[in-house]
Amino acid sequence: MRKLSLILLLALASLVGLTLWVRQTYWGDHRRRMSGQTDLAKVGCLNCHLVSTASLRWSQPRPHHDTPAGLAVSPDGAMLYIALDDRDEIAVADTASRQVLRRWKITGRPWGLALDNLGKRLFVTCREGDRLAVLDTGDGHELASVPTGRGPVAVAFCRTLNGERLVVANSLSDDISVLADSPWRELGRPAAGREPFAVAGSPDGSRAFVANRMVELASVKTSPASELTEIDTLSGRAVRREALASAHLSESVCAVPSRSWMLTPVVKIRNQVPITQAANGWVMSGGLAITDVNTGEMLQMPLDEANDYFADPAGLVVDPAGGRAFIASGGSDVITVVDLERMAAWLAKASPAERREAIYDLALAPEYVVARLPTGRNPRQLALSPEGSTLFVAERLEDDILLLDANQLTVRGRIRLGDGGSDDPIRRGERVFTSSAYTFQHQFSCRSCHPDGHMDGLSYDFDGDGIGDNLLDNRSLLGVAGTEPFKWNGKNPSLDVQCGPRFAKVLMRTEPFPPGPLQDLTTFIKSLPPARSARRGDGKLTTAQARGKAIFFATRTASGKEIPHERRCSTCHRPPLYSVRLPFDVGTQGTSDTTKAFDTPHLLGVGGTAPYLHDGRAQSLEEIWTLYNPDDRHGVTSDMNKIQLNDLVEFLKTL
Ligand code: HEC
Ligand code: HEC
Ligand code: HEC
Q1: Confidence band of 417 (pLDDT split at 50, 70, 90)
Q2: Number of alpha carbons in the 13 Å side-chain half-sphere of residue 217
Q3: Any idea which fold 81-245 has?
Q4: CATH homologous superfamily of 426-526
């Protein structure tokens, strides 16, 4: 009996010893070999195994809401058409009774709306369907569906001497589809700036103007500028590209008939100033860009005031007489009313230098801002009744349309589309995300830098130890769930830390988020799916993409040499997140970086997040390797030819 227990005890001890040994040596060695890390403290089996996106919040079902996007008013002012992108529906409301009469189903995430002159046809851009649908306003049936570029978000109807035209802003393919009628077909596809987002026709229909939301990549490092693209509607060609200097995030554009002006709301860029100076001055502010379409002169006027900011300018409309402009401020829940006569009067008496510097003078707005009207949560798109008496405001996170008397500036009532969704934590979190209520002087919201949860393509100085010396490239929050730790340096272990204490300390300069809103905020961020990639609808890869995939997973170079484990793309960027969530030194340390190693970024949706690397030094995916991988430490790429590198990039764009 005693012998038996001794044997058992010995057997148990050796089993424990063996397990420990295996853990220490075999598994330790396995982890070391597979990860290329010397310090194994942070390297767990789960960095590389059993990772699945199916358990992440964004791949689970979520509630849908009656969220209003684009608006269009019938020529007689009786009907309001409302795109409900989250429902794949168009709502038709009676403006007098303020009741929704009908809802039409339409697939592909309807977003932008326009009507023809008689109000017989409704034109709808389907943001995810990559198409423009033509609906009969009599019964809502689809008369035509025309393919466009990728991510169409806005459309304008124009009449030319040579027939009708539709000008469509394609936000993902960075171009403009000009469609001609009978039957509708694409006449031209001129290139736009980066992320074309809004479009308006000139009063005579001969021109259309497209506002682009992001700054041009080539301008990022020197003098960031977005663009107003002018289209000749007859030929379907771009005829002028006007830079909007140090400004971006234009979500609207509108003609002032009486003055040959095009108006665009803009956000002034001050990304290279340390963000910690928010307490001393401003981080960002909103303005109005005025482009004189005859002379090409462009001016920018402030909409904010020194201690009172109106974040995230979105929709903009001008009354038919050209007397007033209305601008929705999505972050502040305010409509700003600008008297254009008074603005023109100020401009007429200002010196050229005063006009040039106007945007920096935050004492100027009272000269022409005549009212700030409160709205429900997150006012975005606007529409005016044809004679200009009623202003319709899409209160996006309220599921309402607010009706304002545009002359008296009083509330007429609301069209209720849904219940507001207050019992959905994702909806509540989006309200926190889009609200400027939590920042110093209400200057900005999370959305100001992460529009639609994405990124703005800029690099920011979060250090405060000098100007422009430690820039960090902004990151998309689309598909970010499960990719912790966060930040380029990987120092934040969870979204609660990243969005809570860190944000409060660095950015807000006010009280941190209360626990409830913080939890809703992180729930919202986790629900954001990765950005749409360039993968075909059927999920199959093109031949170039398939060749690129083979390169990404290759264990040997093109010339047949074995690639060391730690230099294979898939070692560090392992599917399904394309990151093992560990820090590596890939030879990208810059002169002002205090660290050599950076957290391996996930690559979901990476095709749309240029510029690249932690400081945004690479303008394109190619540049990561052609310019910034001299020693083959970031994958073995020096022996790749142009076609191979191109194939690799084509594959990356499908992730
Ligand atoms: C840094 C990444 C990484 C880490 C950490 C890691 N592995 Fe692996 N493991 C791999 C790779 C790569 C393979 C090769 C097969 C593959 O691609 O799945 C592999 C293979 C395996 C296999 C299959 C047997 C084999 O040799 O092909 C087992 C079992 C395994 N790992 C268990 C573990 C365990 C247990 C841990 C934690 C102690 C762990 N791994 C940690 C990357 C990793
Ligand atoms: C002034 C611009 C700006 C604002 C405002 C802003 N961010 Fe960011 N955000 C950035 C930049 C730049 C980075 C990259 C910084 C880094 O990695 O150190 C970043 C990174 C992040 C990350 C990490 C992503 C990753 O993959 O590691 C999260 C999460 C995030 N922001 C959430 C938020 C939330 C939530 C808010 C609002 C509470 C917010 N951001 C407001 C600019 C901004
Ligand atoms: C040793 C680990 C490692 C290997 C091997 C590796 N990467 Fe990376 N990758 C990283 C790290 C770390 C960064 C961030 C570097 C920085 O920002 O300075 C990065 C950045 C990137 C980025 C930029 C992401 C962004 O958002 O800016 C892309 C794209 C990328 N890698 C693709 C690849 C491809 C393709 C390969 C193979 C040719 C590869 N990587 C090999 C670790 C690795």
Answers
A1: very high
A2: 16
A3: Methylamine Dehydrogenase; Chain H (2.130.10)
A4: Cytochrome c-like domain (1.10.760.10)
Q: Report d(CA 639, CA 655) in Å as an integer.
A: 24
CATH architecture of 533-655: Orthogonal Bundle (1.10)
Q: Which two tokens stand for residue 625?
A: 């390797």
Angle between helices 642-652 and 543-552 (to 10 degrees): 90
What would the DSSP string read from start to end of 566-618?
GGSHHHHS-TTTT----EE--S---TT-S-S-EEPPP-TTGGG--SBSTT--B
- Looking from the CA of 614 toward its CB, the CA atoms found within 13 Å total 26
Ligand 3, atom 11, lies closest to the CA of 600
Laid out side by side, the sheet with 99-105 consists of 68-73, 79-84, 89-94, 99-105
pLDDT tens digits for range 505-543: 766 666 788 899 999 999 999 999 999 999 988 889 999
Mutate to test the pocket of ligand 3, among 533, 600, 627, 636 (most ligand atoms within 8 A of CB): 600
Smallest CA separation from ligand 1 atom 3, residue:
48
Least confident of 47-51, 90-94, 510-514: 510-514
* pTM assigned to the model: 0.94
- Beta strand pairing call for 261-268 and 247-248: antiparallel
Q: What angle do CA 88, 90, 94 make, to 5 degrees?
A: 155
The finding on whether 614 has its CB within 6 A of some atom of ligand 3 is: yes
Angle between helices 515-526 and 425-434 (to 10 degrees): 100
What's the pLDDT band for 21 if we cut at 50, 70, 90? low
* CA-proximal residue: ligand 2, atom 35 (nearest): 499
- Tell me the best of 454, 631, 634, 636 to mutate to test the pocket of ligand 3, counting ligand atoms within 8 Å of each CB and taking the most: 634
For the chain, the structural domain boundaries read: 81-245, 426-526, 533-655
Is there a common fold for 81-245 and 533-655? no
